Amino acid sequence: MKALILNSGLGSRMGTLTAKHPKCMTEIAPGETIVSRQLALLSERGIREVVMTTGAFSDVLESYCRGLELPLHITFVKNSLYAETNYIYSIYCARDALMHEEILLMHGDLVFDSTVLDDVLAAENSCMTVSSALPLPDKDFKAVIENGLVQKVGVAFFDHALSAQPLYHLKQAEWGKWLSGIVAYCESGDPANRKCYAEHALNEIPDKQIAPLDFGERLCAEIDNADDLAAVSERLSALRERTVYLCFSTDMIHSGHIALIRRAKSYGRLLIGVLTDEAVVTYKRFPLMPFPERKAMFEAIAGVWKVVAQDTLSYRANLEAYRPDFVLHGDDWRTGVQQQIRAEVISVLNGYGGRLIETPYANDDAYRELEKRARAEMSMPDFRRARLKKAIAMKGLVTALEAHSGLTGLIAEKTAVSENSGLRQFDAMWVSSLCDSTAKGKPDIELVDMTSRFRTIDEIMDVTTKPVIFDGDTGGLTEHFVHTVRTLERMGVSMVVIEDKTGLKKNSLFGTEATQTQAEIPDFCAKIRAGKNAQKTDAFMICARIESLILERGMEDALNRAFAYTAAGADAIMIHSRKSDPAEILTFADRFRAADSVTPLVVVPTAFNAVTEEELKAHGINVVIYANQLTRSSFPAMQKAAELILTHHRAKECDAFCMPFQQIIRLIPEDI
Ligand code: SPV
Ligand code: MG
C-alpha cells in the first residue's frame, strides 16, 4: 500500500505560521509537526512507500522529511502550478507513481488519533472517514451516505450527510476509477477542472464502493487556522495521557520489539510489564538475563514511561492495577498456548473500556537467529551448570524428569502442558542409574561404568538445554569420586547425588530385601568434603542422599546424617523412602527445616506418588525427581508391540498404539 499525502496547498489561512514553510510543518507539540506525526504513524504501521505532493517551500519540506530519517521511501512530486490549481492537479502530476496501487490518501493538514488510522488501514473495503458524532460543518467536507456507501463528497451537501475528513483507504479498483476521473478532469482543457476538489471526479463515478468509516468523537481534524491548531494541540496532549501496556519476556531486543515499542508509543504513555524470571521459566526458556537486568534494559529505552513486574503469564493483576487504555500484542497469540491469556485480557479490558490492539507478529529471521543463539548459549556448560541453583532460588521447587538417552532428554526438554493461563514444563533432567542401566539391559549395581554413564550424559546434553542432575550411585571410592566431580562439572552437569552406601550397591526400591551396607557417617562426610574440594565452580552442587529410611534405621539416624553431611559441605540433601505413605518424608522435611531453612531438600516420590508437588513444597522440599516413569511406561509398550507381531505374524495389529510412521520421521527436530 502506498500513502499519498497532499502538501501542495499554500495554507494562507494560517497567517505568519506558514511564512517560512508549508502548513504541514507547523508544530503541534514540542518537536512534532503535522507531517512528522503522519509519517511516524505510517512507518510504525509498516507503510514503506509514500508519495508526497509539494508546492510552495518544496525544498524546505523535502529536506525536512529526509531529516526525519524514518524508514520510508518518499517520492516528492512538485505541483509547479500550486498557486492556481487545487490538489486534483497535484494528484494528476503524481499519477505515474500512483497507478495500479492500493492507496491511503490523506491531506497534509490532517491530524488523527492513531487508532483512527489503525481502523482505516484495517478496513477490508475502500473507506472514507466520517463522524456520526460531530455536527455537520458549514464549509467543510460532508459525505452523502446512501445504502451504507459514500455517494458524494463535498461542502455543499447536507441531506443524508455526515461530517467527513479527507482520509481514505482506497483499494486498487476504486482508486483506479477515481484516478482515471482525475486525469480526465485535468486533461479536459478547462482550467476550472484543475481548480476544483478531486472529489468532483469521485462524485461522478457510478456504483462507487466506498464505505463510511465512523471515527465518532475521536480526533481526526484538519488544521486550517490558528484556532484549529490550538484545539488540536490540546486534544493531542490529552491523548498522550492515555496508557498503553506491553508485556515482555525477552532478554534480547530485536527489530520486531523495537517496531512494537515505537508503535505502542503512538497510543500514549508506554507502560511495560516485564515477566519475572519465574514466569518466564514456566512458559519459555530460562532467561539469559535476570529480571532486574531485563527491567533496567527496558527502562533505558527512550520514551518508555514506566516498567513494572508482571508476576504471572496472566495480565489480570497489572491490568486491574494500572487500567491501561490499550494493550498491544502480536497477533500470534490468537492461536496456541496463549489463547486463554488473550481471552482473559479481552475480558478484563472490556470490564473497564480498554482496547486490545494486535499487530502482525514479526517472527523474522533475525529473531529466529537470536533465539538460536540464546539456546546455544543455554546449552553451554557454564550456563547450564548454574541454572539449577538459580532455578531453585527462583521457584522454590523445581521438578526433574528421568532421561537416559537423547530421545528421553528431548521429552524432558520439550514436554509442556497448559494450565490456568500458563504453561508447565520440567525444569531439569535426572540421569538415573536405574534407567541408564535398564536401557543397557544391565542391573542397577554400578555395573555400567562411569565412562559409559558420561556418554549417556553427553548424548542428552547434545540435544537439550535444561540442567542435568546426575545419579552418582555411591560415588565409588573417594579417590575416584573426585575425578567424577571434575568431569561432571566440566561437562556442565549441575548436581551429582551420591548415596550413603558401601559395598555392592543395589537399587533402593528393593529395600531390605537386598543386603545393603550404609556408609559410616565420617567416611561419607570425608567423601563429600573431597568432592567439594575438587570442584572448580560455585555453581556445581553435591547432594548427599540418605538411605536410613529405606534401610529402616529410623528418623533420628536420618536427621543426624543430614546435619553431619551438610556440615561436611553437602549442597543439598536427598531423603529417600519406599513407603507409599509420604508421612516419614514429610516428618523428616519438617524436622530438618526446623533447624536448617536453606539447604535444598530433594525427594524421589516413586513409591509415595500420591503426594503433590504443592504439598511437598509446603514442607520445604525443593527438588522433586520423577526418576523412572519414562522407562516404566515405554517398556510395557515395547513388550506389547513385540508380542502382537509374534501373535499375528504381521505388524498391522500393533499399529493402533504406535506413533504413525509419518510422525516418527518428524519427531526429532532437525534443529534443536
Ligand atoms: C535411580 O533412579 O536410579 C535412583 C532412584 O537411584 S531410586 O531408583 O528410587 O533408587
Ligand atoms: Mg540410582
Write a structural description.
The chain is of the alpha/beta class. The chain folds into 4 domains: 2-237, Alpha-Beta Complex (Spore Coat Polysaccharide Biosynthesis Protein SpsA, Chain A), CATH 3.90.550; 241-366, Rossmann fold, CATH 3.40.50.620; 380-627, TIM Barrel (Alpha-Beta Barrel); 633-667, no CATH class. 40% of the residues lie in helices and 21% in strands. It contains 25 helices and 30 strands. The strands form 7 sheets. Strands 1, 4, 5, 6, 8, 9, 10, 11 and 12 form a 9-stranded mixed sheet that branches. The chain has an 8-stranded parallel β-barrel with strand order 19-22-23-24-27-28-29-30, surrounded by 9 helices. A hairpin with a 2-residue loop joins strand 2 (27-29) and strand 3. Helix 18 packs parallel to helix 19 (478-491), helix 20 (521-534) runs parallel beside helix 21 (555-567) and helix 21 crosses helix 22. The longest helix is centred in the C-terminal third of the chain and has 20 residues, at 629-648. 42% of the residues are buried. The chain binds sulfopyruvate and magnesium ion.
Short characterization:
Helix content is 40%, strand content 21%. With 672 residues, the protein is of the alpha/beta class. Strands 1, 4, 5, 6, 8, 9, 10, 11 and 12 form a 9-stranded mixed beta sheet that branches. It has an 8-stranded parallel β-barrel with strand order 19-22-23-24-27-28-29-30, surrounded by 9 helices.
